[in-house]
Amino acid sequence: MYGHFLVHRKLRTLRLSHCPLLSDKAFPSSIEPSDENDEEEREKPLPPRPITWVEQLPPLILRHTADNLRVLDLSSCKITDEGIEGIIAHATKIQNLNISRCSNLTDRSLEAISTLGDNLDVLILAHVMNITDRGVVYFARACRNLRVVDVAFCRNLTDMSVFELSGLSSLRRLSLIRVHKLTDIAIFSLAEHAWALERLYISATGVPSLKRKGVHRFSDLPPSDHDPDQQAAFRVFSGMNVEGLRKFLNKEDQRRPMCTSTYTGKGYYASLPRAISP
Fold first, then answer.
1. How many domains does the chain have?
2. Does the residue 113 lie in any domain?
3. Which residues form the signal peptide (predicted)?
4. Do 92 and 115 meet the contact criterion of CB atoms below 8 Å apart?
5. Is 15 helix (H, G, I), strand (E, B) or coil?
């Protein structure tokens, strides 16, 4: 693996899902090439424990880029922010990126990913538990052609993230499963802005508006192997049912005068925190 980026300059697809032994050492470093004369200055005392051959590997510094790489799946790897920065620095035209269950990643990785800009089409971030609204703002404002975003189980995210994602005019599929901090504001933001949305996964979020009588009829049927609690929480909207849900929520809101100030005009947006500057 150490030489993959070195040898395969025309590589278009690289899938390394569920390779838990893969670390940053397998990928290009974002460190700029430096003079060999500086080697002495970089020397450090030996660690107290024996180091492995992997730890002895020097940073993988490349003098070329992987401009042809379009699809990269690193789900369930031990890569860190530094590894993501190195990859993005060398593969600037990635369209489909899956880093789900990469538990070491933070907003720093999302800041690097945002430099992919309009090239990025699909971004899978499920179970990347350390990311926050700030990281979502980074890529949502920079990667305007995103069609698929999955932030399931990213429990630090709030309505602000959904508000930013709902502004993506190309967004077709969005997964918000078990993003527990969401409120009605998130749902109404999607209803008002995400007109291209074709599939919405929003099970087990606890959003009050999804508990309204009649909402369940717009949801797909839950899988038969789900237990009663899972079936009750199942909320996946697809196709015309997304449009049906949008119209239903709009009508419901109009019927509830007390709720109007939380949805329409300045009152709706007043409930959101101030916009986060990247």
1. 1
2. yes
3. none
4. yes
5. strand
**SS3 of residue 106 by DSSP:** coil
Please list, residue by residue across 213-236, b when 16 or more beta carbons sit within 10 angstroms of its beta carbon and e when fewer do.
eebeebbeebeeeeeeeeeebbbb
b vs e for 164-182, b when ≥16 Cβ sit within 10 Å of the residue's Cβ?
Answer: bbbebeebebbbbbbbebb
> In this structure, is residue 24 part of a structural domain?
no
* pLDDT tens-place values along the chain, 278 residues long: 444 554 466 889 999 999 888 878 777 765 554 444 444 445 556 556 555 544 555 444 455 578 899 999 999 999 999 999 999 998 999 999 999 999 999 999 999 999 999 999 999 999 999 999 999 999 999 999 999 999 999 999 999 999 999 999 999 999 999 999 999 999 989 988 999 999 999 999 989 888 888 898 999 999 989 898 888 889 999 999 998 998 888 887 776 654 444 444 444 444 555 555 56
The answer to the question of residue 196 being in a domain is yes
Give, for 122, the enclosing helix (H) or strand (E).
Answer: strand 122-124
How many angstroms separate the CA atoms of 180 and 121, rounded? 26
Q: Report the predicted TM-score, pTM, of the whole model to 2 decimal places.
A: 0.81
Alpha-helical (H) ranges within 91-217 are 107-113, 133-142, 159-165, 184-193
Tokens of 126: 């499920």
Domain harbouring 185, CATH code: 3.80.10
* Burial class for 4, CB neighbours closer than 10 Å (0-12, 13-18, 19+): middle
Please give the structure tokens belonging to residue 102. Answer: 């990469």
Return the amino acid letter for 179.
Answer: V
CA of residue 79 relative to chain centroid, distance:
15
Give, to the nearest 10 degrees, the angle between helix 184-193 and helix 240-255.
Answer: 120
